[in-house]
Amino acid sequence: MEGWLNFFRFFEHQSVTPVDDLIYSVHSGVIKITDLVLKQYGQLPHEGLVFWAGNISENIFNITHVIAPETESSEGRVTVPHSSIYHVVKALSNNKVIHIGQIHTHPGNWVDHSRGDDEWAPFKRPGLISLVVPNYCSSGMLPLKKNGIHRYQENQFIGLSNKYIRRHFIVVEGEAHFTDLRDKENIRWKQLSGTD
Ligand SMILES: [Zn+2]
């Protein structure tokens, strides 16, 4: 019985190496801001979440924008209420960029997608990437292969192999545009900034 269970677990956590020529080019500023926001959540300590956006030119996804939506968060969970999604879509439209990915943290080393991550991902479009950063991002998110990187395709999130991540994800020197939609009056952020 145990053998069979392990057999299924193997498939559940298997990472794949898709054959394509897509390149995900992430501006260094995007990494810096994402680190910062996720670490702020980590201080609470809560799971945190941001969205990445940019543009696609031929086979290259240029990731230049970070959007921090208003969330509901706790030690083991972070979700984006429907009302926040409206503001995210508005920010995408105002900045003339498209949504490329979501990034969220987990408390420990586990960087697979949970069942909740699969179900509650607010945008499920083919090609969407989803990064899971371990340990509340306490040691930053580089190198990228330390994170779980998943991609939505064929109606499900699949884990991308380290080999794929190494070849298809690059960090390039560049600024980032940041839209912070978090409600600064919320107790979580007031506590953090010491105004409560
Ligand atoms: Zn998760």
From TrEMBL:
What is the designated name of this protein? JAB domain-containing protein
SUPFAM superfamilies listed in its UniProt record: JAB1/MPN domain
Note the superkingdom of the native organism: Bacteria
Please report the organism this UniProt entry assigns to the protein: Negadavirga shengliensis
Q: Mind telling me which Gene3D superfamilies this protein's record contains?
A: Cytidine Deaminase, domain 2 (3.40.140.10)
